[in-house]
Protein backbone atom coordinates (compact mmCIF):
# COMPACT_ATOMS: atom_id res chain seq x y z
CA UNK A 1 0.00 0.00 0.00
CA UNK A 2 1.58 3.29 -1.07
CA UNK A 3 1.22 6.28 1.24
CA UNK A 4 -0.06 9.24 -0.81
CA UNK A 5 2.02 12.38 -1.01
CA UNK A 6 1.04 15.97 -1.70
CA UNK A 7 3.87 18.38 -2.43
CA UNK A 8 3.62 22.14 -2.87
CA UNK A 9 6.07 23.73 -5.29
CA UNK A 10 6.24 27.40 -4.32
CA UNK A 11 8.53 28.14 -7.29
CA UNK A 12 10.12 31.62 -7.43
CA UNK A 13 7.47 33.14 -5.17
CA UNK A 14 7.59 34.78 -1.80
CA UNK A 15 9.18 37.40 0.39
CA UNK A 16 10.09 36.81 4.01
CA UNK A 17 6.75 38.39 4.97
CA UNK A 18 4.56 36.45 2.55
CA UNK A 19 6.38 33.19 3.36
CA UNK A 20 5.72 33.84 7.07
CA UNK A 21 2.00 34.20 6.26
CA UNK A 22 2.02 31.01 4.22
CA UNK A 23 3.72 29.14 7.06
CA UNK A 24 1.02 30.35 9.45
CA UNK A 25 -1.62 29.27 6.95
CA UNK A 26 -0.13 25.78 6.65
CA UNK A 27 0.11 25.51 10.45
CA UNK A 28 -3.65 26.18 10.66
CA UNK A 29 -4.53 23.26 8.34
CA UNK A 30 -5.94 19.97 9.53
CA UNK A 31 -3.56 17.71 7.63
CA UNK A 32 -4.49 14.05 7.12
CA UNK A 33 -2.22 11.67 9.00
CA UNK A 34 -2.16 9.12 6.18
CA UNK A 35 -0.74 11.58 3.64
CA UNK A 36 2.89 12.67 3.40
CA UNK A 37 2.99 16.43 2.94
CA UNK A 38 5.93 18.46 1.64
CA UNK A 39 6.60 22.02 0.54
CA UNK A 40 9.33 23.30 -1.75
CA UNK A 41 10.10 26.97 -1.05
CA UNK A 42 12.78 28.93 -2.91
CA UNK A 43 16.16 28.04 -1.45
CA UNK A 44 16.36 31.54 0.00
CA UNK A 45 13.41 30.68 2.25
CA UNK A 46 14.27 27.06 3.11
CA UNK A 47 15.67 27.90 6.56
CA UNK A 48 12.69 30.10 7.40
CA UNK A 49 10.26 27.36 6.37
CA UNK A 50 12.16 24.55 8.14
CA UNK A 51 12.02 26.59 11.34
CA UNK A 52 8.47 27.82 10.82
CA UNK A 53 7.05 24.35 10.21
CA UNK A 54 9.08 22.59 12.89
CA UNK A 55 6.95 20.20 14.93
CA UNK A 56 4.53 19.76 12.03
CA UNK A 57 4.55 16.58 9.90
CA UNK A 58 5.46 18.59 6.80
CA UNK A 59 8.73 17.94 5.00
CA UNK A 60 10.68 20.67 3.26
CA UNK A 61 12.43 20.24 -0.07
CA UNK A 62 14.61 22.16 -2.48
CA UNK A 63 13.41 23.03 -5.98
CA UNK A 64 16.70 22.05 -7.63
CA UNK A 65 20.24 21.07 -6.76
CA UNK A 66 23.65 21.23 -8.40
CA UNK A 67 25.01 18.31 -10.41
CA UNK A 68 27.83 18.09 -7.85
CA UNK A 69 26.69 16.71 -4.50
CA UNK A 70 29.36 18.40 -2.39
CA UNK A 71 30.15 22.03 -1.78
CA UNK A 72 32.63 23.63 -4.15
CA UNK A 73 33.37 26.32 -6.69
CA UNK A 74 30.09 26.52 -8.59
CA UNK A 75 28.82 30.08 -8.39
CA UNK A 76 25.11 30.48 -7.88
CA UNK A 77 24.35 26.77 -7.43
CA UNK A 78 23.17 24.99 -4.29
CA UNK A 79 24.57 21.54 -3.48
CA UNK A 80 22.33 18.69 -2.40
CA UNK A 81 24.53 18.39 0.70
CA UNK A 82 23.76 22.03 1.56
CA UNK A 83 20.03 21.42 1.17
CA UNK A 84 20.32 18.43 3.48
CA UNK A 85 22.29 20.49 5.99
CA UNK A 86 19.56 23.16 5.88
CA UNK A 87 16.91 20.61 6.85
CA UNK A 88 15.57 19.49 3.47
CA UNK A 89 14.38 15.92 3.00
CA UNK A 90 13.62 16.05 -0.71
CA UNK A 91 14.54 17.88 -3.89
CA UNK A 92 12.79 18.34 -7.24
CA UNK A 93 14.88 17.32 -10.24
CA UNK A 94 14.03 17.83 -13.88
CA UNK A 95 11.10 20.21 -13.45
CA UNK A 96 9.90 21.15 -16.94
CA UNK A 97 10.55 24.85 -16.30
CA UNK A 98 14.20 23.94 -15.92
CA UNK A 99 14.27 21.39 -18.75
CA UNK A 100 12.65 23.82 -21.20
CA UNK A 101 13.58 27.35 -20.11
CA UNK A 102 17.07 26.51 -18.86
CA UNK A 103 17.81 23.71 -21.35
CA UNK A 104 18.45 21.13 -18.65
CA UNK A 105 19.26 17.83 -20.38
CA UNK A 106 18.41 14.30 -19.30
CA UNK A 107 22.10 13.87 -18.52
CA UNK A 108 22.01 16.78 -16.06
CA UNK A 109 18.81 15.54 -14.51
CA UNK A 110 20.45 12.15 -13.98
CA UNK A 111 23.43 13.77 -12.27
CA UNK A 112 21.17 15.83 -10.01
CA UNK A 113 19.11 12.72 -9.14
CA UNK A 114 22.30 10.85 -8.19
CA UNK A 115 23.70 13.84 -6.28
CA UNK A 116 20.49 14.10 -4.26
CA UNK A 117 20.49 10.42 -3.31
CA UNK A 118 24.16 10.45 -2.40
CA UNK A 119 23.32 13.03 0.31
CA UNK A 120 20.25 11.19 1.60
CA UNK A 121 17.74 13.46 -0.12
CA UNK A 122 14.75 11.90 -1.86
CA UNK A 123 14.67 13.13 -5.46
CA UNK A 124 11.28 13.91 -6.98
CA UNK A 125 11.92 13.20 -10.65
CA UNK A 126 9.65 15.35 -12.85
CA UNK A 127 8.78 14.05 -16.31
CA UNK A 128 6.24 15.17 -18.89
CA UNK A 129 5.51 16.00 -22.48
CA UNK A 130 4.84 19.31 -24.23
CA UNK A 131 1.56 20.00 -26.02
CA UNK A 132 3.23 19.50 -29.42
CA UNK A 133 4.59 16.13 -28.28
CA UNK A 134 1.15 15.05 -27.02
CA UNK A 135 -0.52 16.14 -30.23
CA UNK A 136 2.10 14.21 -32.21
CA UNK A 137 1.25 11.08 -30.19
CA UNK A 138 4.68 11.05 -28.54
CA UNK A 139 3.65 11.29 -24.87
CA UNK A 140 4.62 7.80 -23.74
CA UNK A 141 7.83 7.87 -25.78
CA UNK A 142 8.96 11.21 -24.29
CA UNK A 143 8.12 10.28 -20.72
CA UNK A 144 9.62 6.82 -21.23
CA UNK A 145 12.87 8.35 -22.46
CA UNK A 146 13.11 10.78 -19.51
CA UNK A 147 12.53 7.90 -17.09
CA UNK A 148 14.88 5.50 -18.90
CA UNK A 149 17.74 8.00 -18.63
CA UNK A 150 17.60 7.71 -14.83
CA UNK A 151 16.92 3.95 -14.72
CA UNK A 152 19.86 3.29 -17.04
CA UNK A 153 22.29 5.51 -15.13
CA UNK A 154 21.22 4.95 -11.52
CA UNK A 155 19.55 1.54 -11.67
CA UNK A 156 15.92 0.72 -10.94
CA UNK A 157 16.66 0.13 -7.24
CA UNK A 158 17.27 3.87 -6.93
CA UNK A 159 13.49 4.31 -7.30
CA UNK A 160 13.06 2.65 -3.93
CA UNK A 161 14.26 6.00 -2.54
CA UNK A 162 12.67 8.37 -5.06
CA UNK A 163 9.34 9.81 -6.13
CA UNK A 164 8.23 10.36 -9.72
CA UNK A 165 6.03 13.30 -10.74
CA UNK A 166 4.22 13.17 -14.07
CA UNK A 167 3.62 16.77 -15.09
CA UNK A 168 2.33 17.35 -18.63
CA UNK A 169 3.94 20.65 -19.60
CA UNK A 170 0.73 21.90 -21.22
CA UNK A 171 -1.10 21.54 -17.90
CA UNK A 172 1.41 23.44 -15.76
CA UNK A 173 0.18 26.84 -14.69
CA UNK A 174 -2.24 26.84 -17.63
CA UNK A 175 -5.47 26.01 -15.86
CA UNK A 176 -5.70 22.94 -18.15
CA UNK A 177 -5.62 19.67 -16.26
CA UNK A 178 -5.06 16.24 -17.74
CA UNK A 179 -8.25 14.24 -17.34
CA UNK A 180 -8.00 11.46 -14.75
CA UNK A 181 -7.93 8.92 -17.62
CA UNK A 182 -5.20 10.80 -19.52
CA UNK A 183 -3.08 11.03 -16.38
CA UNK A 184 -3.74 7.41 -15.36
CA UNK A 185 -2.60 6.16 -18.78
CA UNK A 186 0.81 7.81 -18.33
CA UNK A 187 1.14 6.85 -14.66
CA UNK A 188 0.40 3.21 -15.54
CA UNK A 189 3.02 3.34 -18.31
CA UNK A 190 5.61 4.76 -15.89
CA UNK A 191 4.87 2.01 -13.38
CA UNK A 192 5.00 -0.65 -16.12
CA UNK A 193 8.38 0.62 -17.30
CA UNK A 194 9.74 0.36 -13.76
CA UNK A 195 8.06 -3.04 -13.30
CA UNK A 196 9.82 -4.38 -16.37
CA UNK A 197 13.05 -3.92 -14.40
CA UNK A 198 11.80 -4.62 -10.86
CA UNK A 199 8.16 -5.36 -10.00
CA UNK A 200 8.59 -4.72 -6.26
CA UNK A 201 10.21 -1.32 -6.75
CA UNK A 202 7.47 -0.39 -9.23
CA UNK A 203 4.72 -1.31 -6.77
CA UNK A 204 6.25 0.81 -4.03
CA UNK A 205 7.15 3.99 -5.88
CA UNK A 206 4.86 7.00 -5.53
CA UNK A 207 3.92 8.62 -8.85
CA UNK A 208 2.45 12.10 -8.33
CA UNK A 209 0.40 14.03 -10.85
CA UNK A 210 1.15 17.71 -11.40
CA UNK A 211 -0.50 20.27 -13.63
CA UNK A 212 -3.16 22.70 -12.40
CA UNK A 213 -4.22 20.50 -9.48
CA UNK A 214 -6.81 22.30 -7.36
CA UNK A 215 -9.14 21.36 -4.54
CA UNK A 216 -11.98 20.89 -7.07
CA UNK A 217 -10.19 18.35 -9.26
CA UNK A 218 -7.83 16.69 -6.77
CA UNK A 219 -10.07 13.91 -5.44
CA UNK A 220 -10.95 12.64 -8.91
CA UNK A 221 -7.29 12.57 -9.98
CA UNK A 222 -6.08 11.00 -6.74
CA UNK A 223 -8.79 8.34 -7.05
CA UNK A 224 -7.04 6.76 -10.05
CA UNK A 225 -5.16 3.54 -9.26
CA UNK A 226 -1.67 4.71 -10.24
CA UNK A 227 -1.93 8.33 -9.06
CA UNK A 228 -0.42 8.53 -5.59
CA UNK A 229 -0.93 12.22 -4.90
CA UNK A 230 0.04 15.50 -6.44
CA UNK A 231 2.77 18.02 -7.09
CA UNK A 232 0.96 21.32 -6.79
CA UNK A 233 2.25 24.66 -8.03
CA UNK A 234 -0.02 27.71 -8.05
CA UNK A 235 -2.64 26.29 -5.70
CA UNK A 236 -0.03 25.54 -3.04
CA UNK A 237 0.49 29.29 -2.50
CA UNK A 238 -2.93 29.41 -0.86
CA UNK A 239 -2.70 27.48 2.41
CA UNK A 240 -6.44 26.72 2.62
CA UNK A 241 -6.50 25.42 -0.94
CA UNK A 242 -3.34 23.39 -0.31
CA UNK A 243 -4.82 21.94 2.89
CA UNK A 244 -7.96 20.91 0.99
CA UNK A 245 -5.82 19.19 -1.68
CA UNK A 246 -3.91 17.32 1.05
CA UNK A 247 -7.20 16.19 2.58
CA UNK A 248 -8.41 15.03 -0.85
CA UNK A 249 -5.45 12.62 -0.93
CA UNK A 250 -6.39 11.13 2.45
CA UNK A 251 -8.66 8.17 2.93
C1 LIG B 1 4.35 22.65 -11.12
O1 LIG B 1 4.95 23.52 -11.70
O2 LIG B 1 4.99 21.76 -10.53
C2 LIG B 1 2.88 22.68 -11.16
C3 LIG B 1 2.26 21.55 -11.03
O3 LIG B 1 2.29 23.89 -11.32
P1 LIG B 1 0.70 24.23 -11.34
O4 LIG B 1 0.04 23.41 -10.26
O5 LIG B 1 0.61 25.68 -11.10
O6 LIG B 1 0.20 23.82 -12.69
Fill in the CATH topology.
TIM Barrel
Shape: globular
| Widest sheet: strand ordering | 1-2-3-4-5-6-7-8
Bound molecules: phosphoenolpyruvate
What features would you describe in this structure?
With 251 residues, the protein is an alpha/beta fold. It has a single domain (5-250), classed as TIM Barrel (Alpha-Beta Barrel), CATH 3.20.20. Helices cover 43% and strands 15% of the residues. The chain has helices at 16-27, 46-52, 80-85, 96-101, 106-118, 131-135, 139-154, 180-197, 199-204, 215-222, 239-249; strands spanning 5-9, 36-40, 58-62, 90-93, 122-127, 163-166, 206-210, 229-232. The protein has an 8-stranded parallel β-barrel with strand order 1-2-3-4-5-6-7-8, surrounded by 6 helices. Helix 5 crosses helix 7 (139-154). The two termini are 12 Å apart. The mean pLDDT is 97. The site of phosphoenolpyruvate (PEP) has 13 residues, from strand 8.
Summarize it.
This protein has helices at residues 16-27, 46-52, 80-85, 96-101, 106-118, 131-135, 139-154, 180-197, 199-204, 215-222, 239-249; strands at 5-9, 36-40, 58-62, 90-93, 122-127, 163-166, 206-210, 229-232. The protein has 251 residues and is α/β, with parallel strands linked by helices. It has an eight-stranded parallel β-barrel, surrounded by six helices.
Give me the secondary-structure topology.
Blueprint lengths: L4 E5 L6 H12 L8 E5 L5 H7 L5 E5 L17 H6 L4 E4 L2 H6 L4 H13 L3 E6 L3 H5 L3 H16 L8 E4 L13 H18 L1 H6 L1 E5 L4 H8 L6 E4 L6 H11 L2
Parallel strand pairs: 1-2, 1-8, 2-3, 3-4, 4-5, 5-6, 6-7, 7-8
The protein binds phosphoenolpyruvate.
Amino acid sequence: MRRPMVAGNWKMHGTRASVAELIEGVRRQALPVDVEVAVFPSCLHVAQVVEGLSGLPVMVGGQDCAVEASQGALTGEVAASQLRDAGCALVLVGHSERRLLLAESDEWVVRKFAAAQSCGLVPVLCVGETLAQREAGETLEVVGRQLAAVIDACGVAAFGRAVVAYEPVWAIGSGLTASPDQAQEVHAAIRAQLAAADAEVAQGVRILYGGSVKAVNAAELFGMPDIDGGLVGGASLNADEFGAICRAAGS
